[in-house]
Amino acid sequence: MSSNQGVVAQQPYINCIRKTLEAAMCLVNFPSQVVERHNKPEVEAQSSKELVLNPIIIARDADEKVLIESSVNSIRLSIKIRQLDDLDRHITKSFMDFLQRRANHYYILRRKPVCYQGTQYDLSLLITNENTDSMLKGKLVDWVIEFLQDINKELSYIKIQVGMRARVVAKEYFASFQS
Amino acid sequence: MSMRKKPEKTSLCPTAITCHSYNADKSLVALCASTPDIYIYEVEGSDSSKWKLVETLSAHDMNVSSIDWGPKKNRIVSCSEDRTAFVWECVKGKWDQALVVLGPNCTYGGLDVKWSPNEEKFVVGTGSSQAHVCYYDAGHNWWLSKGAKGHSSSCITTAWMPGGDLVIATGSTDCRVIITSGYIRTVDGKCANPGKVGTKMGTIQLGGWVHCVSFSPSGDILCAVTHDSAISFIDTSDTTYEKVQTIYLKTLPFNSCVFLDDNTLVAGGNDFYPVCFKSDGKEWKMAGKWVEGGKVLEKTTSATSRAMAMFQDQAKFGSAQGGAKTTKTKHQSAIMDIKRIKDDTFSSSGADGQLNVWKLSDMQAEN
Q1: ipTM value for the complex
Q2: Cβ count within 10 A of residue B360
Q3: A27 CA to chain B: closest CA distance, Å?
Q4: How far apart are CA A107 and CA A133, in angstroms?
Q5: ∠ CA B173-B176-B182, rounded to 5°
Q6: Looking at beta carbons, which residues of chain A come within 8 Å of B82?
Q7: pLDDT (tens digit, 9 = 90+) per residue, A77-91?
Q8: How far is residue B98's CA from residue B86's CA, in Å, rounded to a whole number?
């Protein structure tokens, strides 16, 4: 998606995110203490200050970072992907919209990304204690890390494909002017 | 007739086990498993996935959050997110429940319940930040309660001080452990007491949400495990409760702890394995853990089934090595509850639906 000049290598960034996720995902069931008979993800409801932990931003650089907000029974992970030009932004937005529209199939995907302290993130995940109970926590962390590692590759692949298609279409179009 | 073999049950329960409790001779275990029902299994052998379900107790509307089986009077008390609690008694082979009136102050669901040492009373920690001490009212054949205030957030764990039925310790998401009186005149009669129920005897400020409190068998030490990956040992003989030894660990937080004897404690939590702490009389230190023991799933040996498994993994998980890996530890997910069986044996139940029995002799010692 971009040139690798002056960019921190990806592996320490990924390792840091993995360790933080493992620590943040220590979730327990917690029925709401402000609404009776309700059980809601506290990171979304933000009902009581003591139940929500301090948010952490892990940034590779200014354009690429991850926000992890944790609470007693849920965590929210938001990803900001590096997008350098208009085509990047368009492709990223389309791809994220595609995923978010099918959020119910992904169980942990949030339908709208989070905007925190002025930064609009591209994708958000909401993992609750119900998810960690029914799915293995180690596998969930593995899935998120794999997603982070592959997302840049996928988006740059799409960008190359767009370029290739544009070239083929232009070639065919101009060929019609040659007699 | 189906050609496919029914998948073998690998764990005791298909859903996460919140807590478990044994009867007096440890032949039956009651589970509270993220459902509105309580399940009683027969303990047979060391492999818990083979245990048989003998009884299902249904009365609650919403998930049961905690249960306790009193060994002396053979009664189970359960509390639930639906703000009710029941006391179950087995009469002529049939389990029947008695109502517990938690009162209008319990607005947000029961979170933890424990019988007192003589099993005439029990305490329920609730989301309304109170601990309700409940006692039997023979006149109406139900259980009444008196609330003990003190916390500013949900009271998630409770314990009775052994040696009497007068003192309770409660831990909460406000990061405090509060030691309160649980004395009720009508039940306990006239005796030396620390004040009526709710009289605060001490408050200990800790660094994170208190997941579990537990007294040693003599009542001298109170252990609290907190979310900042710390374990604190509070000396209760000093009534100012200032002598607190806190061990900060580099591992993930514990969810539960229990004393095996006055000098040995086991704790388990988000690292999926139990850890042992021992005291030499003056100081507590980590003594060992039970890390190994994870079952490696048998892989099929024929070439076609291996190839089929690889393609299935590719489709399901997006990568060829997909689902067959397991962790090194016996538990595949966080340990939620640890209970003592004997001086050298204890059991842990977890969010993966497993219940494992451990022996002190199998511990990998820490040097």
Answers
A1: 0.84
A2: 18
A3: 9
A4: 13
A5: 105
A6: 37
A7: 999 999 999 999 999
A8: 6
Kindly tell me the burial class for residue B315, based on how many C-beta atoms sit within 10 Å of its own C-beta (0-12, 13-18, 19 or more).
exposed
**A29/B253 touch (CB, cutoff 8 Å), yes or no:** no
Neighbours of A65 (CB within 10 A): 19
For residue B314, which phi and psi values (nearest 5 degrees)? Answer: -60, -45
A48/B153 touch (CB, cutoff 8 Å), yes or no: yes
A28, A136, A137 ranked by CB distance to B255: nearest: A28
Q: Count the neighbouring beta carbons within 10 Å of the beta carbon of residue B201.
A: 18
d(CA B17, CA B335): 9
Rounded Cα distance between B179 and B172, Å, is: 12
Q: Round to whole Å and give the CA distance between B274 and B153.
A: 28
Name the pTM for this structure.
0.87
| Listed residue (B43, B130, B12) closest to B79, CA to CA | B130
Residues with pLDDT less than 50, chain B: 1-2, 297-298, 320, 322-324
**SS3 at position A101:** helix
Residue B107 contacts A, CB cutoff 8 Å: yes
The whole-angstrom distance between B206's CA and the closest CA on chain A is: 13
For A136, the closest of B81, B174, B333 (CB atoms) is: B333
